[in-house]
Amino acid sequence: MESPPIHYRSLFLFFGYLSLALFLIFICCDTIYLRYQARQRKHDWAAPKRRAQFFLFTFLAALSLATTWYYMITLFVHSFNNWGTSPEGLAYSGVDVPLVIRMGLWLKKTYVLQEARETVFETPTRLWWSGQIFGWTIGWSLFLGLTGRRYRIPYVWVYMLVAQGISVSFAANLFFAAITVSQRPDEHHVAFAWSPPLLYELAPVALSLLDTLAVPIFAYEKGFMVILLAPHLFVFVPCVLRPMISFPSRTKDSKAQQGGRTTQRYAVFINWVAAASVILQAYFTVLMLQDIGTDVPLGEVARHLLDAVYVHPACSSVSWDVIMCTLSAFAWALSHGFNASRMLGGQ
Fold this sequence. Notes:
Keywords: Membrane, Transmembrane, Transmembrane helix. By secondary structure, this protein is mostly helical. It has one domain (about 10-345). The protein is about 75% helix and about 0% strand. It has 16 helices and no strands. The protein has helices at about 10-40, 50-85, 85-90, 100-110, 110-120, 125-150, 155-165, 170-180, 190-195, 200-215, 225-235, 235-240, 250-290, 300-310, 315-335, 340-345. Helix 1 runs parallel beside helix 8, helix 6 packs across helix 14 (about 300-310) and helix 10 runs parallel beside helix 13 (about 250-290). It starts with 7 loop residues before the first helix and ends with a helix.
């Protein structure tokens, strides 16, 4: 049999995606490293426990990456092996067919990332896990925009790209680490007090929540991927908003007071998003219970949920992302005494 051509385009897209992911991580880590060196050199950590917090969130970032991408790599191997045992794959399984050719054929014939996304929404029990990641991302996008401005962290949108391409928990912990090595926010600076018009943040957040609600309705429909990817685009809006003009002439005290009002506004806003996410999760829970039976004992429900974590590598990656998001958010709240103002960069 004549050896098939190498599918360079498929290989380029796959390895280009992995290379871009590594480059985005480098951008984030470069900022963190430079600021850590500055804090060590100047001894001007924003708070006495900031250095310990830096190591905590660095550890959580590494743990998030390990737990989610262990299963992502397992997913790639699982998909490649499944293709290799299919009739088409078996036709090219001979030792005389180079691995690069077989990988190119696998990537051309198998839409591995699309199939992974469809798999994690395939049943209500899987949706119970995967749906949570939308709620975490939507709320985090508001936090990302506000604290990114206040701590003057460059390329905040890169952290959102890392969340979309790698994992939300990993990106969130990288961002938490970046905050811990940043100087204390200047409450008299325009970026501390500024907030965009409400519509600019409310519209993308509301659309993201509504779109998440539509995911189980349109699963496996023709436009499913559009419905699925739309929230991934909306959440970029809050983290790219920046003040275009300075405040009118005001005293420093009035700017600080405005900053306090901005903090309270975001605390309320994020609480509302959290409440909406809880309602959304309650809806997913109802769908799950209807699927497995409302008269099933609680222990059996827990077993179904645990089974959904490990039923497929794609499900494992997303479920562990949700678990690590929960752990990381709790660690951030605990390290700030559950004080909303301090958690949002206030004083």
